[in-house]
Amino acid sequence: xxDYENRPVPEGINVSPxxxxxxxALLVAGISGLILVVTLVVSxxxxxxxRHIPFTEExxxxxxxxxxxxxxxxxxxxxxRQTYLQNLADRLGAVMNLPAGMNxxxxxxxxxxxxxxxxxxxxxxxxxxxxxxxxDENALAMVVAHEIAHVRNRHPIVAIGRGFAVAMTLxxxxxxGDGLMEQWVGGLGMLPVLSFSRGQEEEADADALEALYRxxxxxxxxxxxxxxxxxxxxxxxxxxxFNTHPGTEARIERIRxxxxxxxxQEKVVLVDLPDGIKTGANSP
Length: 284
Description:
Layout: H1 20-50, H2 55-63, H3 76-94, E1 105-109, E2 116-118, E3 123-127, H4 128-132, H5 137-152, H6 155-174, H7 178-187, H8 198-216, H9 224-234, H10 248-261
Parallel strand pairs: 1-3
Antiparallel strand pairs: 2-3
């Protein structure tokens, strides 16, 4: 009699007790979660690293994009508007304790887009549509100071650093190849679409209020544009400038709270915008 025998294989030994689709879903969810966690961690680390990149290096990168900035060449009125905006930015920058070597360059854009934006290297773009929507210089100064604060706090380079890190991570983990990187590199030409976090926006608002208080001795007028935006939001036609910003009502409330704790140092006088700065096509 043989010492060994071939026992029959039990039925279903290689069949999972759970449904295959459930296991597939768990696998996909696990991989997606891992990619999300890794991406978030890399993004945060990249943001911290980017903040320490010398501003001279940021300016050098911005210079490579110089051909993309709006130009006022050949238009005397546009040049007058840009000169006024640059002077306003210089006055604001002088009271914002900008680090040594951090210069602000304002570019005027004649588009009727209601927007302003800060990009790499201290470059700020202000659109005519924004100027036309403002009642006085104080309201314009609030927006320009907000953009200067983004530069001062290095928000553009942090946003670029995070975007680069996310693109690299997704490209490596997902195996999408160089296409994603090419899109990101091409996106450098789309610097205006830089988006900042809500915390960065609130930080810029706070710095802007401090700048207005130092420059004018009060923050009167800082809420007027936001109040107009709040009315437009009710009709679902808010300008692009505020699409990713904190809630308008919350911003207005913070400005009012700041005004209560920082009373006017002297009689409040709102500064008119100079003649020729507005087109009048979109006046309040």
